[in-house]
Amino acid sequence: MTTGTLILIAKEPVPGRVKTRLQTEFTPGEAAALARASLADTLATLERTPARHRVIALDGKPGAWLPPQFRIVAQRGDGLDERLAAAFEDSYTGLPMLLVGMDTPQITGPRLTVDWSGYDAVLGLTEDGGYWCLGLRQPDERALLGVPMSTDHTGSDQLTRLEGLGYRVKLLPTLRDMDTPQDAAAIAAAYPELRTARLYRRLVHAASPTLLFEQALDGAPVTAMGSDGSPLLRLSEMDRWQAPADDVDRLAISRCEGPVLDLGCGPGRIVTALAEQGVPALGVDISELAVRQTTDRGATALRRAIHDPLPGEGRWGSVLLMDGNIGIGGAPAALLERCAQLVRPNGLVVVEVDPDDDLDCTEAIVLHSAAGRRSTPLPWARVGSRAAIRYAAPAGLDAAEDWRTGDRAFLTLRRVHDRSRPVARSVRAPT
């Protein structure tokens, strides 16, 4: 049996313009990649399905992903109802038409090979209340214009409209479309052979660490694991990082001499506390969200990697590595060398270290989200005071103070003029 005309209504898979609801778990680029994969799966099925004509109603520019068997018509109209009506009108050749979207990569040829005997229209509903296909014997804008789109009752409203026009409607099986990360996971699990499923599995196990860190900033539960799967860092402590500076934080920044540079500032509680005290301070973080949260607090922050050029190099009074940021990059010696480059002569580097004085671990960590995403390995280090002092010495940083309060431990390091002289022994200061 041959279907008359198959129509695919689709958007060019451009990051930021497609699959925006997937971006709660995926970057815009990853969401666009999933959209491209879904589009490729759908096009492959349409290619295999017997049809007299194949049309793609496209929003955007055609690319290499478009098979030659498809005639392209540009989408026109304002709302989706107008664009759907126009797609039927622009694709009509006198044969029945079946239109599908790009959000159900699991569709199969048999589902699209419709027996129109005794029917005027075809409708396939989706689990979220929409529909994945609509078939009409001939264009009829009355069937579409004014039907509310993108709601949890669009499918039922569309059915009501068709039946109200006296159409005999053939209902196809209900499918799940891919709008949310949960949808993508379910489709990938149920149809593992799809290109969409293969890409989903790769993305789930290779998330950007920055993406998962930003999810933690937004309040999602994220855990840092070692290579053996043991929990190492609880990013649930983000609650403390999001709160105003506490007494321990204020004790640490009381050691600072201005101006202050906070490396890996996160959501900016330290920079904000310094600004409230009238101390010039700048936060630096690679996370766009962290910088925005810092500036939203009224403090100053810059999106920049630590080893990129930074303002005022060699002139900062103090550099801060709070919240275990001595671990950034997994190379504490190189990081402390960078801090020494940033502070002025006799300037300070205040480092929060691990409470275990003897700890010296440079094991990479992997971030895990509650939704099942896993980051690529992130170079990280966890060091106690003794290891930090040892790493600081070649950088010309003298351990001036070694102190702790509660379950948090700190070092105050001072940049010495003459790196050839011995580094002073640390002093465990009372708190």
TrEMBL record:
It holds the Pfam family DUF2064. Coiled coil: none annotated. Keywords: Transferase. InterPro entries: Nucleotide-diphossugar_trans, SAM-dependent_MTases_sf, Trfase_1_rSAM/seldom-assoc. GO terms for molecular function: transferase activity. PANTHER family: GLYCOSYLTRANSFERASE, SLL1095 PROTEIN. This is Glycosyltransferase A (GT-A) superfamily protein (DUF2064 family).
